User: Fold these one by one.
Assistant:
Number 1:
Amino acid sequence: EVQLVESGGGLVQPGGSLKLSCVASGFTFSDSAVHWVRQASGKGLEWVGRIRTKANSYGTTYAASVKGRFTISRDDSKNTAYLQMNSLKTEDTALYYCTRHDWNEDWGQGTLVTVSS
Amino acid sequence: DIQMTQSPSSLSASVGDRVTITCRASQDISKYLAWFQQKPGKAPKSLIYAASSLQSGVPSKFSGSGSGTDFTLTISSLQPEDFATYYCQHYNSYPLTFGPGTKVDIK
């Protein structure tokens, strides 16, 4: 069974940083691209970014709204992907999901990030 | 960026009804289109990918069609567990974008 488990969310002040983790199991993690998608309370889904596999040079792509502030990385030896979030803004407040594949086949349960003073 | 629109934004239907949701892309996305179901307090669940391919374990009452810019999701006979919000998403290019969602509730 495919499982994705996010963690690391919490309350952070504007301008602060937070690092989210996504631990995967049930599939060959090193062969899968990993995406991050977020959802503000009561709102729709927003793609944040993705990291490709080693075979694709761990290429990353980001949404314009987070480019330059967020960084996605992965450690295939730990079956884990990360989302480093810097210079956080109040509008980054959301539930953050990790998913796999461009068509977002599998989702974690999400981890809540609240940016507030 | 490719913009995704959905219609209607919400609909009320009865158990047993046939329901169709439309998704439109602002430019040709071939068949790079996925559909998701989201229930309150839960993560989205993948239903369909490549416009018409059913994800493993998804009941056959769900079906998808379309290519290019116009797509549909059909639920053949609505059941109580199908009341939810449905989203489309393209993956033709980056950034990936989602439609605004269609909320299906009980009539």
Number 2:
Amino acid sequence: DAGVIQSPRHEVTEMGQEVTLRCKPISGHNSLFWYRQTMMRGLELLIYFNNNVPIDDSGMPEDRFSAKMPNASFSTLKIQPSEPRDSAVYFCASRPTGGGWETQYFGPGTRLLVL
Amino acid sequence: GENVEQHPSTLSVQEGDSAVIKCTYSDSASNYFPWYKQELGKGPQLIIDIRSNVGEKKDQRIAVTLNKTAKHFSLHITETQPEDSAVYFCAASDGTNDYKLSFGAGTTVTVRA
């Protein structure tokens, strides 16, 4: 089991540029989460998908952020245009179907720096 | 919404000693309480979890206790080893939206050799 896969692992960009983060959940998991981690705010849930459908996007900070899940094995989080305050570590997590369904498995994260 | 408080923020222990981290939560309907370990440069990894119908759970050197009446739960690590050094996060599920976890601020544990 390869676990949750995220790319890129590190991203440095300039303010105003578009940033796209990618996630491949664990095969068979039907729920996917995007989180943001900062020193000031800790781990925050940005958006939750179930069966590829966005269920809760109340954590998305503003319209500059968007997320998609075109199929069960791929999701993207896009920031356009990026700002320095978006600098953070972004995690993708997935959750299995069936027993232990509450357990969320996190990917290694994408460390984003917006200059 | 759920509010989770975690203490202490840092903890330094001698190798072989025990470490205890405590969390409180606000939503009495919460029913799932996972603990995650995050090593430098990595994502949080689940180490143990407990559900509200259980008061205590143990897995080798790690144990978690839950007091639903007082709305607090704790992580106990016995016989600490240098590889236990990491940031530990507690979390509690939202009573209304079970997919939503609220995380504590984290405890940085350092095990001194």
Number 3:
Amino acid sequence: DADVTQTPRNRITKTGKRIMLECSQTKGHDRMYWYRQDPGLGLRLIYYSFDVKDINKGEISDGYSVSRQAQAKFSLSLESAIPNQTALYFCATSDPSDSSGANVLTFGAGSRLTVL
Amino acid sequence: KNEVEQSPQNLTAQEGEFITINCSYSVGISALHWLQQHPGGGIVSLFMLSSGKKKHGRLIATINIQEKHSSLHITASHPRDSAVYICAVTHYGGSQGNLIFGKGTKLSVKP
């Protein structure tokens, strides 16, 4: 099994629908992230969480919400999807044990979302 | 201006060629990462470095902290190296855990 599992891998939905992307990890990492990737724009941070009680907005959090149900689970929700949220979404975890403060990231395989 | 710039954006090489991808950054960092994104979309971490040089197989990553520049080299390139290579930095003093990503370099290695 993958260290970081995202579901669904692909989803097509309509404008206004509520969508949840789920992420679970077996790495035992406290830190989890949701990123969005758009062609020509690179990866952009939506939300991140350092532990179950810690949720932080990233640079593009508008229109999104998250839930950290457990150390291993971090879900991303689009309450009312719109076409410009069509993108490839990645969940990632990182190892906080590096004393330099730098992280080594482990990514999920990605969830491709299309909003019509 | 982007805080992390990669060059070139696209690179086509013949099998066996030596390849260099460059990354320049404008912020203080605690570490720099090189990631590889396969055509299917998955992203894997290749290197994390804060100084000097690291080598893994045919891949070599270097960083010059004073010049705020890093390079990723691929020796004896192979078609299976075709992927997008992404540079990212852990911003020192920024929100801890927040990385700044470059836009990636798309590499195509022809047989």
